[in-house]
């Protein structure tokens, strides 16, 4: 019997009978997580379903890699659009968020070490 582990809904891939995206499983696997670890991190998935999703990815790698790149590009475009809308519509909040981001990104200064006598 053939079992379908991955389905496509409205242009997105999901693990069948779940709401887990194929993206989540593939990115975890590409980051070096074992199928067992992935199954532990997604309790709604069985180990069989994780292996099925990874097998689907490997069997369709070129198409899924293109899909993941498109989704990443769409996300980045939407992120930029949201930031621009925030900058225009809520300039004070935008300024506060950008200041907080600069503080987080700025390298922390380390105290000078002085030799002890």
CATH homology superfamily name? Winged helix-like DNA-binding domain superfamily/Winged helix DNA-binding domain
Number of strands: 2
- Subunit organisation of the chains: single chain
Tell me the fraction of residues in β-strands, as a range.
Answer: 5-15%
Q: How do the SSEs run, as a string of H and E?
A: EEHHHHH
Radius of gyration: 21 Å
Write the layout of secondary structure elements.
Blueprint (H helix, E strand, L loop, with lengths): L5 E4 L2 E4 L6 H9 L4 H7 L5 H13 L1 H29 L1 H15 L12
Antiparallel strand pairs: 1-2
Helix pairs in contact: 1-3, 2-3, 4-5
Structural account:
With 117 residues, this protein is mainly alpha-helical. It has a single domain (6-103), classed as Winged helix-like DNA-binding domain superfamily/Winged helix DNA-binding domain (Arc Repressor Mutant, subunit A, Orthogonal Bundle), CATH 1.10.10. It is built from 5 helices and 2 strands, in the order E-E-H-H-H-H-H. It has helices at residues 22-30, 35-41, 47-59, 61-89, 91-105, and strands spanning 6-9, 12-15. It has a two-stranded antiparallel ribbon. The relative contact order is 0.09.
Describe the structure concisely.
This protein has 117 residues and is mainly alpha-helical.
Short descriptors:
mainly alpha; 117 residues; elongated; two-stranded antiparallel ribbon; Arc Repressor Mutant, subunit A; 2 strands
């Amino acid at each position: 019997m053939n079992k379908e582990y991955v389905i496509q809904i409205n242009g997105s891939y999901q693990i069948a009978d779940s709401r887990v995206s194929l993206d989540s499983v593939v990115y975890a696997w590409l980051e070096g997580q074992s199928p067992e670890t992935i199954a532990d991190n997604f309790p709604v998935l069985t180990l069989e379903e994780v292996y099925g999703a990874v097998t689907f990815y490997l069997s369709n790698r070129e198409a899924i890699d293109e899909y993941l790149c498109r989704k990443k590009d769409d996300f980045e475009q939407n992120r930029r659009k949201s930031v621009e809308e925030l900058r225009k519509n809520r300039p004070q909040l935008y300024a506060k968020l950008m200041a907080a981001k600069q503080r987080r990104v700025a390298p922390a200064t380390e105290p000078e070490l002085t030799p002890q006598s």
